[in-house]
Amino acid sequence: MSPAELCWRARDQVLRAAWARRQVSRDQDVPAPRGLAKERGFPVVLPARTAGLVPDEARAAVLASADRLINGDWDVLGLHRDDMVAPDWFFDPVTGLRAPADRYAFRINHRSQEQTGDVKQVWEVSRLHHLTLLAAAWFLSRDDIYARRVAEQLRSWWRCNPFLSGVHWTSGIEVGIRLISMAWIRRLLDDWPGVGDLFEHDDRAVTQIRWHQQYLAAFRSRGSSANNHVIAEVAGQLVASCAFPWFAESAKWRRKAARLFERELIANTFPSGVDRELASDYQYFVAELGLVAAVETAAAGHPLSAAACQRLCAVVDSGVAMLDERRRPPRQGDGDEGRALVLDAPGQPGILSLMGLASAVLGRLDWWPAATADVRSSIVGAMPGAAHHVAGRPSKRPSRFADAGMTILRTASDDEPEIWCRCDGGPHGFLSIAAHAHADALAIEVRHGGVDVLADPGTYCYHGEPDWRSYFRSTVAHNTVEIDGRNQSIDGGPFLWVRHANGKESHVADVGDAVEWTAEHDGYLSLRTPARHRRCVRLDRASRGIDIVDEIDGGMHDIRLAFHFGPEVEVELEQHSAALRWPAADVPGAARLDLPSSLNWTLHRGATDCILGWYSEGLGRRVPAFALVGCGRSMPDMPLCTRLQFLSAGNDRTSNNNLLAVSWLASDAMRRSTR
Question: What CA–CA distance (Å, rounded) separates 571 from 592?
Answer without folding.
Answer: 10
